């Protein structure tokens, strides 16, 4: 049908009015996790994204890997991968996309959002105006979709700004900061002496591809000619692509919002200039067949506005690992600051100062202090510039945003505003609801009043005893310090026997250390030492006895000192909560084996103790006497969903081929849902793109199982599982005197179960 119109007075855009409980502006990882969490809690959610895909800096448009507290396994934060929705997405991406293809990751995010019936997704749609009432409560937001030439007027009781630059908060008049505070404001010793406008800049990446035939590259006229003005400070490698080129950064001295297009053009000049230098300078061999496969079209932004909540997180909260009554999330990336001039700066590309462990992030940083119904999510959190250096990474932003989504649900249910969630009694209920969804809050134990599992008698077909890691015949020269990180119970420390080869008689020294703070994995308290003398030979037992007792269950370090002519036997066996660490550094996130900050910087000096990544990862071969009984069935209801101050998991014995876990109550209970938490190795970072991973499923994850009632009724038969959390929502509540989980299949490590909940 032909449409033929003429209107000399002009026309108005098509307009649609939409209504929701929560409107989320911004579809990066923070917006996605906030929207999914709120929708699953029953809220009607509208998610507005100004780009054609979701994910923000993690999307195929920018291509930055998602990271957080695990920091490429380059710090001392063990088992610290974020939980909840972002973990769910990362684990699924590993299953579908171990190669790290950014296009596959884009499709996963779109699926995860669009399969939620309570989410209305608006892509290519940007916020441009809003309406408030006399009390500064936001009533509606005007948005525009360039692809459909449609204006959407979105009304909601609650709004979340997850836009990165804080467009919603800016339009609403929310208090914000931009730049670096003076050291005196928060007592931050890393901060400048006076306030300055220096931000972290933008980055833009490219990918190359080997075409198997010579390819010519003619640079565009705008490409930077004198590339050596930046390369003289950097180590440029032909093998680097994508976010390994993070140091192609610029713009921190400009307005990183309004000057973004200018910054992008400068980054294009730099990136095309770098590629021209690689292809045509003659300084790089074997590049003739390489072509420029992809160039970023939009820069990845780091820093712009930071909005003010009822609390502003600062350096001391991070380094001192301060405890907050309203802890809702956690961080663990280094305080990672970059020079404002980026590639044109003579300074190092970044300075990274790690804490000894993860730190709590309080809920009071997640809402505006002066716009009553505005939540803050993502990098616009209420934080100082120095603290921003740590909290800005995407896994941390996403984990925070899950807390925002849950807070929004509580607000709608109780008809309250975001600030009221921080009231003590509500905060306790809020934290427990978060933990139920897989959120990890360091130091906050699950104690769900509706969970009936802790009242059950819990038994199992068998229980793993940590008594030996069998030698695989592989050897490692004892040239650097190494340590077994082991879960021990309160009481006497057991005897340890290592298996070693010695080319000559020698004395081998070992020590027992622990962390000064519960939950940390930095050995900074020496408990005992021992020495054993060895003759020359192979497969020699090196036995260490320590006269020391532990006051509580904890992870401890059996540190073995270097010894000339000694080789340590290794083991391929893996157990939940057990790692072998090496005193070394990861060049991606550290400059030396021992962090040595400037004097009076407020940052701790300590050594890095890091595991190897699989498939290279090995443990030290060891015999432990008596064996440690730390995998008891009762662990599944102790309130911890990961190794935190202990294993906190049940695992069956190694020779149990048909293991089961059983919960039985004295009287029948009414059950509506059952949730089980499996071992997807929270120590593995699962970088979302580029790096690639050797496994699709974590070694200790239970992959097939059956669930039945004590009366014999089959509730579920699962033939393929790779996720951390599995939840069964029963169509009708059942009455039963118990449940039994039968384990059918798992990977090369013993299958571990961290939690069982029965609500």
UniProtKB/TrEMBL annotation:
Gene3D superfamilies with a match to the protein in the record: FAD/NAD(P)-binding domain
Gene Ontology MF: a single term: metal ion binding
Keywords: 4Fe-4S, Iron, Iron-sulfur, Metal-binding, Oxidoreductase
InterPro entries to which the protein is assigned, alphabetical: FAD/NAD-bd_sf, HdrA-like
UniProt-listed Pfam families: FAD_oxidored (PF12831)
Presence of the UniProt keyword RNA-binding in the record: no
PANTHER family: COB--COM HETERODISULFIDE REDUCTASE IRON-SULFUR SUBUNIT A (PTHR43498:SF1), FERREDOXIN:COB-COM HETERODISULFIDE REDUCTASE SUBUNIT A (PTHR43498)
Record protein name field: FAD-dependent oxidoreductase
Organism listed in the record: Edaphobacter acidisoli
Taxon lineage: Bacteria, Pseudomonadati, Acidobacteriota, Terriglobia, Terriglobales
């Amino acid at each position: 049908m032909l449409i033929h119109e003429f209107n000399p007075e002009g026309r108005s855009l098509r307009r649609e009015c939409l209504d929701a409980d929560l409107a989320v502006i911004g579809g990066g990882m923070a917006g996605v996790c906030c929207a999914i969490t709120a929708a699953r809690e029953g809220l009607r959610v509208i998610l507005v994204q100004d780009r054609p895909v979701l994910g923000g800096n993690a999307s195929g448009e920018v291509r930055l890997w998602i990271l957080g507290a695990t920091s490429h396994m380059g710090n001392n934060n063990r088992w610290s991968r974020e939980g909840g929705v972002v973990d769910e997405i990362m684990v699924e991406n590993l299953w579908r996309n171990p190669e790290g293809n950014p296009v596959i990751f884009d499709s996963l995010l779109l699926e995860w959002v669009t399969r939620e019936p309570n989410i209305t997704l608006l892509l290519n749609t940007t916020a441009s105006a809003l309406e408030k009432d006399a009390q500064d409560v936001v009533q509606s937001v005007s948005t525009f979709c360039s692809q459909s030439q449609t204006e959407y007027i979105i009304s909601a009781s609650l709004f979340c700004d997850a836009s990165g630059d804080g467009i919603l908060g800016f339009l609403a008049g929310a208090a914000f900061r931009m730049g670096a505070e003076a050291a005196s404001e928060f007592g931050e010793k890393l901060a400048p002496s006076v306030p300055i406008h220096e931000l972290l800049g933008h980055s833009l990446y490219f990918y190359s591809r080997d075409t198997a035939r010579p390819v010519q590259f003619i640079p565009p006229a705008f490409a930077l000619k004198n590339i050596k003005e930046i390369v003289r400070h950097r180590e440029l490698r032909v093998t680097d692509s994508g976010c390994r080129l993070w140091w192609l950064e610029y713009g921190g001295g400009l307005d990183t919002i309004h000057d973004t297009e200018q910054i992008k053009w400068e980054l294009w000049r730099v990136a095309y200039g770098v590629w021209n230098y690689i292809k045509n300078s003659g300084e790089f061999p074997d590049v003739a067949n390489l072509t420029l496969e992809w160039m970023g079209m939009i820069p990845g932004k780091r820093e712009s506005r930071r909005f003010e909540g009822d609390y502003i997180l600062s350096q001391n909260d991070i380094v001192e690992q301060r405890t907050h009554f309203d802890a809702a999330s956690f961080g663990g990336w280094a305080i990672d600051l970059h020079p404002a001039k980026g590639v044109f700066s003579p300074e190092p590309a970044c300075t990274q100062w790690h804490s000894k462990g993860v730190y709590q992030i309080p809920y009071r940083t997640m809402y505006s202090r002066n716009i009553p119904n505005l939540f803050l999510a993502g990098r616009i959190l209420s934080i100082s510039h120095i603290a921003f250096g740590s909290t800005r990474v995407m896994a941390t932003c996403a984990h925070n945003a899950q807390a925002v989504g849950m807070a929004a649900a509580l607000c709608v249910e109780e008809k309250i505003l975001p600030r009221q969630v921080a009231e003590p009694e509500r905060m306790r209920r809020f934290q427990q609801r978060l933990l139920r969804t897989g959120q990890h809050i360091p130091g906050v134990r699950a104690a769900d009043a509706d969970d009936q599992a802790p009242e059950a008698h819990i038994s199992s077909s068998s229980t793993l005893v940590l008594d030996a890691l069998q030698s695989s015949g592989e050897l490692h020269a004892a040239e650097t310090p190494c340590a077994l990180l082991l879960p021990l119970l309160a009481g006497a420390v057991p005897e340890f026997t290592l298996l070693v080869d010695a080319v000559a008689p020698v004395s081998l020294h070992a020590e027992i250390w622990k962390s000064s703070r519960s939950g940390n994995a930095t050995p900074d308290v020496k408990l005992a030492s021992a020495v054993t003398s060895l003759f020359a030979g192979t497969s020699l037992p090196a036995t260490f006895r320590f006269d020391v007792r532990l006051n509580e269950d904890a992870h401890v370090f059996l540190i073995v000192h270097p010894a000339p002519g000694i080789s340590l036997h290794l083991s391929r066996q893996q157990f939940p909560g057990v790692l072998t660490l090496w005193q070394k550094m990861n060049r991606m996130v550290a400059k030396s084996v021992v962090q040595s900050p400037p004097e009076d910087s407020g940052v701790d000096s300590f050594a890095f103790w890091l595991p190897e990544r699989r498939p290279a990862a090995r443990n030290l071969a060891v015999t432990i006497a008596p064996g440690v009984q730390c995998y008891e069935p009762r662990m599944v209801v102790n309130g911890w969903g990961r190794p935190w101050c202990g294993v906190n998991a049940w695992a069956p014995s190694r020779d149990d081929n048909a293991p089961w876990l059983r919960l039985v109550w004295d009287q029948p209970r009414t059950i509506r849902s059952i949730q089980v938490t499996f071992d997807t190795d929270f120590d593995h970072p699962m970088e979302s793109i580029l790096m690639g991973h050797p496994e699709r499923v974590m070694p200790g994850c239970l992959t097939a199982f059956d669930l039945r009632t004590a009366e014999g009724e089959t509730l579920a038969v699962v033939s393929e599982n790779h996720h951390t959390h599995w939840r069964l929502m029963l169509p009708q509540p059942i009455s039963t005197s118990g449940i039994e989980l039968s384990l059918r299949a798992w990977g090369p490590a013993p299958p571990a179960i961290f939690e069982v909940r029965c609500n």
